[in-house]
């Protein structure tokens, strides 16, 4: 047989197996089924048993499937599949085969499974024989076969219901399976009721079909004279085989059921670990009595439903705990930010229906900073469990504290990384941190392994990905000096919108990250102007995608002041930050230009730089820089640099080759007026510049 197209396939050297001649003498045919190629060889006697000519069969089992009724085929496939999965070496099954003349013949097959060294099934060698005489040679056997068929149908309903319940995650999912018209009602039940035990009472959670609810039974006590209460009390099934028995045993309930034409009922306790969690009732209108097989099947069904309900209740409890922990770790409120509209969203993702995995380490935060600035944070701790959420909460609080102390972005990120490394956890985290001065629109951003932000321009509606040079994810190094987080500066014009998000909003199975970023940019560009509506649209898209990762996002839109500029800018310059002075000069030049004093921008920038340098060199601690526009008889710009030292600045002669001592000389030469003011335990050095334009 192997020369019929099978030579190109990898077949065993001894295929097909040669049957013992004794088999043919006993009316048995043999087959050799190679599972790698899918080919099944039949000997001559097997052709006879299956009533198929050699020229009709091409070694493919599918050719025979047309001769087997669908129900028989499913049952046979189930027997073979179960044996292959559970490691069995043998299986056997009876099935009916439609002969060439259209009649059905009972056939019996028995197979031996050969596996390789790893336990993987490779071949099945077995026999087939005519079992007609064995099963149908008398009316009694025909009747038994009919009973077996009915029992198989009931068992099939139980199996189908059990299979559907395996996918149920919540109590409502279990109820939906039970109330489905393709579910237990195929057992012939007219009505279904399910109750759960809660605080010593039974609360009805399902009744169907619709309109079959009995008034007064929504919540009942366990000691009340109802069949469901009896099943819970006794931990045993309650079978009612006739209307007369129902009326006699439960006179309180029966008057409410007379118009439903109930003829029998089965109430089953739902027991888990020897403890009742509820009960289920099946009411029938077309049967009387229950055979022993009926009772066994219904008890098995009740056990399966009980396990599913308990699993669903555990899942819901775990979900409540996980969601409560997640909400506790995220900010309860987002502070109002003058000069900006902010929207945040978080969406958890269910992963494979596993308990505890509907929670993750994604987070967002908005932090008020010294000098009127704000810090925007987006991050993602590795993992999808309560441990990831707990680590996220600690990391969020620490990062918030470092930022609120006034440290520059790179320092904030580096310190957070060291903290996570020393937290004695195996989790790392990605993060993006942006310090924003909404007066000037200047943003300073650092990135620790996170995806880049996106900016939508108000002027033309375009959206672009902002490339931020990145450092290591947080927690991968304990040496502060080895952590390098380059700072990128971006300017937001009034009306521009910044998007920070986690990769759950971008990544799609089988898609490249860059393609995902381009898709997100297009979605952002065409989204609504209002940040709340835009956030809703983005999170709805993530929900429709049904990805296996959490999503956190933060949208920040710089407002258009729509009138005169507020004329005040303040920020903190931390010591030991090599980029602080350059950053301060950039902010001053940007603000001065925005306030219409570009002609004196060089002088103001130079003087402010000298005052900041003096404060950092000759005092301990940070400096607070304030730039404000003053009105009066003349239009003026005022620069103040405040420090914590009460020592007054003094003028020194620099000499011909000196590199210091000229700071106050420059201040005196370039400013119109300057001075010193006491500020608590420190002081503020200030200077003013007269600028052209109406006051």
How would you sum up this structure, described in words?
There is one protein chain. The protein has 695 residues and is α+β, with helices and mostly antiparallel strands. Strands 8-7-6-11-10-9 form a 6-stranded antiparallel sheet, sandwiched between helices. Strands 13, 14, 15, 16, 19 and 20 form a 6-stranded mixed sheet that branches. Strands 2-1-5-4-3 form a 5-stranded antiparallel sheet. A hairpin with a 2-residue loop joins strand 10 (264-272) and strand 11 (275-284). Mean pLDDT is 81; it is low at 1-7 and 351-356.
The number of helical elements comes to 17
Secondary structure: helix percent = 25-40%
As a percent range, the share of strand residues is 25-35%
First and last CA, distance: 104 Å
The major beta sheet can be summarized as: 6 strands, antiparallel
Topology, element by element:
Elements: H1 21-25, E1 28-34, E2 40-42, H2 44-49, H3 62-65, H4 70-85, E3 90-98, E4 104-115, E5 121-130, H5 132-136, H6 139-165, H7 171-179, E6 191-198, E7 201-208, E8 219-221, H8 227-234, E9 238-240, H9 243-249, E10 264-272, E11 275-284, H10 292-329, E12 340-347, E13 361-368, E14 374-381, H11 386-404, H12 409-421, E15 429-437, E16 442-448, E17 454-456, E18 463-465, E19 470-471, E20 488-491, E21 497-501, H13 513-525, H14 531-545, E22 551-558, E23 568-573, H15 580-594, H16 601-618, E24 623-630, E25 636-643, H17 663-670, E26 673-679, E27 682-690
Parallel strand pairs: 16-19
Antiparallel strand pairs: 1-2, 1-5, 3-4, 4-5, 6-7, 6-11, 7-8, 9-10, 10-11, 12-22, 13-14, 14-15, 15-16, 16-20, 17-18, 17-21, 21-22, 23-24, 24-25, 25-27, 26-27
Helix pairs in contact: 6-10, 10-11, 11-12, 15-16, 16-17
């Amino acid at each position: 047989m192997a020369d019929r197209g099978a030579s190109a396939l990898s077949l065993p050297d001894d295929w097909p197996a040669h049957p013992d001649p004794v088999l043919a003498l006993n009316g048995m045919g043999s087959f050799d089924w190679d599972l790698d190629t899918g080919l099944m060889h039949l000997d001559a006697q097997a052709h006879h048993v299956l009533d198929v000519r050699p020229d009709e069969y091409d070694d493919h089992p599918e050719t025979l499937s047309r001769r087997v009724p669908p129900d028989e085929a499913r049952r046979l496939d189930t027997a073979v599949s179960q044996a292959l999965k559970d490691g069995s070496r043998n299986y056997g099954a009876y099935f009916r085969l439609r002969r060439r003349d259209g009649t059905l013949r009972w056939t019996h097959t028995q197979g031996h499974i050969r596996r390789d060294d790893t336990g993987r099934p490779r071949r099945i060698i077995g026999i087939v024989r005519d079992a007609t005489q064995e099963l149908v040679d008398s009316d009694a056997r025909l009747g038994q076969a009919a009973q077996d068929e009915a029992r198989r149908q009931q068992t099939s309903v139980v199996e189908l219901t059990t299979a559907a319940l395996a996918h149920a995650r919540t109590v409502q999912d279990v109820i939906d399976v039970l109330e489905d018209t393709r579910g237990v009602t195929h057992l012939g039940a007219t009505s279904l009721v399910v109750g759960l035990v809660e605080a010593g009472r039974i609360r009805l959670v399902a009744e169907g079909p619709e309109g079959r609810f009995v008034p007064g039974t929504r919540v009942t006590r366990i000691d009340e004279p109802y069949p469901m209460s009896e099943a819970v009390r006794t931990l045993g099934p309650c079978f009612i085989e006739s209307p007369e028995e129902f009326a006699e045993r439960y006179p309180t309930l029966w008057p409410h059921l007379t118009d439903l034409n109930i003829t029998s009922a089965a109430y089953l306790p739902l027991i888990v670990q020897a403890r009742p969690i509820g009960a289920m009732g099946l009411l029938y209108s077309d049967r009387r009595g229950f055979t022993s097989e009926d009772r066994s099947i219904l008890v098995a069904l009740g056990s399966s439903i009980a396990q599913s309900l308990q699993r669903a209740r555990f899942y819901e409890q775990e979900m409540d705990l996980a969601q409560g922990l997640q909400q506790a770790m995220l900010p309860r409120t987002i502070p109002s930010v003058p000069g900006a509209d902010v929207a945040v969203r978080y969406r958890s993702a269910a992963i494979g229906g596993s308990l505890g995995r509907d929670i993750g380490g994604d987070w967002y935060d908005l932090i008020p900073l010294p000098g009127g600035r704000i810090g925007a944070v987006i991050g993602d701790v590795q993992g999808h469990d309560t441990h990831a959420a707990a680590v996220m909460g600690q990391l969020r609080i620490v990062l918030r504290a470092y930022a609120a102390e006034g440290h520059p972005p790179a320092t904030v990120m580096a310190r957070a990384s060291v903290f996570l490394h020393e937290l004695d956890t195996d989790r790392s985290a990605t993060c993006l941190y942006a310090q924003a001065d909404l007066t000037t629109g200047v943003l300073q951003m650092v990135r620790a392994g996170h995806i880049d932000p996106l900016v939508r321009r108000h002027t033309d509606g375009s959206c672009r990905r902002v490339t931020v040079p990145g450092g290591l994810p947080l927690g991968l190094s304990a040496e502060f000096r080895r952590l390098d987080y380059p700072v990128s500066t971006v300017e937001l014009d009034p009306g521009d919108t910044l998007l920070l998000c986690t990769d759950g909003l971008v990544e799609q199975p089988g898609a490249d990250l860059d393609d995902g970023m381009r898709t997100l940019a297009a979605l952002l560009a065409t989204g609504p102007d209002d940040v709340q509506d835009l956030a809703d649209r983005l999170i709805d898209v993530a929900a429709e995608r049904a990805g296996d990762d959490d999503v956190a996002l933060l949208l920040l839109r710089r407002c258009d002041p729509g009138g005169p500029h507020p004329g005040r800018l303040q920020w903190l310059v931390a010591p030991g930050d090599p980029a602080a002075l350059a950053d301060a000069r950039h902010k001053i030049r940007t603000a001065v230009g925005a306030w219409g004093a570009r002609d004196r921008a060089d002088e103001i920038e130079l003087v402010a730089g000298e005052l900041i340098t003096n404060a950092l060199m000759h005092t301990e601690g940070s400096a607070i820089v304030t730039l404000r526009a003053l009105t009066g008889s003349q239009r003026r710009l005022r620069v103040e640099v405040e420090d914590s030292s009460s020592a007054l600045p003094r003028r020194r002669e620099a000499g011909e080759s000196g590199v210091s001592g000229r700071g106050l000389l420059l201040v005196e030469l370039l400013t119109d007026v300057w001075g010193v003011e006491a500020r608590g335990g420190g002081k503020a050095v200030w200077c003013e510049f007269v600028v052209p334009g109406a006051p």
